[in-house]
Amino acid sequence: MARTQRSAESAATSAREIVEPSGDDTEFVFFSGKGGVGKSTVSCATATWLADNDYETLLVTTDPAPNLSDIFGQAIGHEVTAIDGVENLSAIEIDPDTAAEEYRQETIEPMRELLGDEEIETVEEQLNSPCVEEIAAFDNFVDFMDSPEYDAVVFDTAPTGHTIRLMELPSDWNAELEKGGSTCIGPAASMEDRKREYERAIDTLQDDERTSFAFVGKPEGSSIDEIERSASDLGELGIESQLLILNGYLPESVCDDPFFEGKRADEQAVIERAREEFDADATATYPLQPGEIAGLDLLADVGGVLYDGAEATVDVGTATDVDGDGTEHVDSDGAVDFESMTDADAVVDQLTPGEETQYLFFTGKGGVGKSTVASTAATKLAEAGHETLVVTTDPAAHLEDIFGEPVGHEPTPVGQENLDAARIDQEKALAEYREQVLDHVTEMYEDKADTQIDVDAAIANVEEELESPCAEEMAALEKFVSYFDEDGYDVVVFDTAPTGHTLRLLELPSDWKGFMDLGSLTKGAAPAKGDQYDAVIETMKDPERSTFAFVMYPEYTPMMEAYRAAADLEDQVGIETSLVVANYLLPEEYGDNAFFANRRAQQAQYLEEIRDRFDAPLMLAPLRRDEPIGLDELSAFGEEITGLADVAEADAPEVTPS
């Protein structure tokens, strides 16, 4: 069948029509979505369904926390592996670190006979750019997009708009090659051959007769908002999203009390909104199961529901289905004692400021509730008498919704004594950054008639590099750094901390902004700025001044993504995780049946694993009927979160902000 074009009749298109191959050429299905939404489950189910329908299928994941092996119950790894019990299906888990190292070596080896040791060292440093990891992953996509032996290739984790935009830099590769220049993804000369392959790959991504893009999300308003932003980003690059899958809605049969009946009603309203508003050709749904989805039978159930119109099977079972670590916190009735798994005093120690300004960073993947947790912590700290500023770098600007007050680019009061809030406006930050960078380059070459660099060409190159997504990260970081100079605050709470990816941009040798190579435009050309960055990073590394908290919910993928991000921060930047927030814990007073007993036991199991993996105190936050909105609700929610109710009012000594 020919892929249905968007039209008034597009709602009639089925999910099956979108993923099923329609021609002789290999076709591709990309699944995108945040960690923990069931993207890998849906990818595995889709690949299995295609194979069961006699299509030779390859399943590829670039997820840094792959769980294909767990889902299929067999070892897979970095090589293409046949899946036991499923004819026509193979899979591979691409290891991002291995892929990045392979990319670096493939880039450097041809240069070793042409360049001296000093030049090779410079190239090696450039290839430590975090953007290289994205390029390496895309390189692997490109390899598998030329696979005529398969009818379909299913990708678990699609390239983002950020990654695809990197492929388009710089626009004039030949001019860059002639200059011997560099980009944030390495020397231009090393990528000339790849450029043609990348262009072919992007053409295929933009061809909706051969490529399908599907988003997987939870039936939550914030999840839909995030998907719409990502889809819009891809749409600007000529890539349309054809399928939306909302995964994990509460089954009606298990919602037998007002709390979960209300949660289910909210989810169904979000599903209806998504069907009406999201610009996809088809929308499909799958319910929450009492445990994690693994094994061919459950995968067949998922595939049947999504693509054959079958009714979902929800086998509630008994309250003894979950085994393993953590069950010592589950009694014979299935009740879980979450409080025994945390230390409130240790949490308070991480939150309370000393004699200098304390910086609290709440970070984590989208949809884990970090904005709510950060705002709640800020509210309770302000109530305790600490002058507090909460800052968000979240492009969705959730702080305005949470506080019910306007939140701008500069700190403003939000109705609570001692509490201000600010939102980094990406467009304003980028405009400020562009002006600053271009002024800096112009000043460097003013009145320097003897320079060997073509100043106009240098400025033109800078202007082009400022279209890089790396520039957006650096612009946000510039504004972020400025909040370390805010006077008068005892505590500054950051909603969404800079990742290791962003901070590593500062450490690149090409220049103080981290991604442009313009000869003498080096980090040393702006020592004051370099010193400022160094001072901020040193403050962030100091456990007496800064607390890095990873927010997650207790499931495999969110836990592993946070664990990997925490390891990246420590290994690459030297910042240790000092607090872990486990959000959305199922309340004991509701959901008195085997379904929720199994879900609680599973959460207890993952809380034990989180405690083992992170050497940091646990802050526990319960699932609520509604997200807290306004200061009264934030304050009440803070009483339920481990440690926040115990934050003591500052009495001595008086804090001296730095």
UniProtKB/TrEMBL annotation:
UniProt-listed SUPFAM superfamilies: P-loop containing nucleoside triphosphate hydrolases (SSF52540)
CDD domains noted in UniProt: ArsA
Domain of life, source organism: Archaea
GO molecular function ontology, one term from the record: ATP binding
Every ArsA/GET3 Anion-transporting ATPase-like domain range: 26-308, 358-517, 530-641
InterPro entries listed in its UniProt record: Ars_ATPase, ArsA/GET3_ATPase-like, ATPase_ArsA/GET3, P-loop_NTPase
Annotated family: Belongs to the arsA ATPase family.
PANTHER family: ARSENICAL PUMP-DRIVING ATPASE ARSENITE-TRANSLOCATING ATPASE, ATPASE GET3
UniProt-recorded name of the protein: Arsenic resistance protein ArsA
